[in-house]
Amino acid sequence: MKIAALQMVSTPDVARNLATAARLVGEAAHAGARLVALPEYFCLMGRRDEDKLAIAEADGQGPIQDALSALARRHGLWLIGGTLPIRAATPGRVRNACCVWGPDGARVARYDKIHLFSFDNGREAYDEARVLEAGDTPVAFEAEGHRVGLSVCYDLRFPELYRALMTPPCDLLVVPAAFTYTTGQAHWELLLRARAVENQCHVLAIGQGGLHENGRRTWGHSMVIDPWGEVMALQAEGEGVVAGELSAPLRDAVRTQLPALRHRTLDC
């Protein structure tokens, strides 16, 4: 199955971002992709954290969700909608939700980001907990015989989440993200390749990649990684489609030659 990461440089304008997403999904579909994924915050890179509250939708309905459902149906593919803000039970909070639509446009999965990013090096500071409410449940789904595990951005630093997703083992781990330039330059590829190697499966990493209108710079470097940890395709910055093939024979060969998943003795 051909898979694709759709790298974006999202803006504070939801309509413009949806138009860009639609164009990139169309390009990936035209190139033969059966599963495509958008980055974290694809629909809005606001000027303030609170901007997410203004566009938050109810679970299962709203213009952003409707647009993604229509795109999946129009192109007949699996669409992982990066993340979008869905209203939380707690007033003034939203869930950073990664939703998935099947080729018929029906939603098949929703994962709420568990680990909320916080960083302060004296020059730049972030604290997602100001407006986000954390999820608490790992989520995987089946797509054309492949088990796909979901995660979001900062989750990448917590290998226990991916171990939880490996029962039963996934064929693909998906990581939509908006890594900062600072942390991405230091750790993005290192962590992604580690997740691929330790779980012996493909990884699809989808980044925001460039200088945004709100002044933030994201690392980008969307990539497809194989079960041996090799980078199959990569785009450093800017909008684009990064594609690769899921290879069951390679996955099986890696797991047979180096049966690390069978050698596990400790529960996470």
TrEMBL record:
Per UniProt, residues of the CN hydrolase domain are 1-248
Q: Which residues form the signal peptide?
A: none
UniProt cross-references to InterPro entries, sorted A to Z: C-N_Hydrolase, C-N_Hydrolase_sf, Nit1/2_C-N_Hydrolase
User: Which keywords describe this protein according to UniProt?
Assistant: Hydrolase
Q: Which Pfam families match?
A: CN_hydrolase (PF00795)
What superkingdom heads the lineage? Bacteria
The entry lists its GO molecular-function terms as: hydrolase activity, acting on carbon-nitrogen (but not peptide) bonds, in linear amides
Q: Which PANTHER family match?
A: DEAMINATED GLUTATHIONE AMIDASE, NITRILASE-RELATED
- Report what the protein is called: Carbon-nitrogen hydrolase family protein
Source organism per UniProt: Ideonella dechloratans
Native organism taxonomy: Bacteria, Pseudomonadati, Pseudomonadota, Betaproteobacteria, Burkholderiales
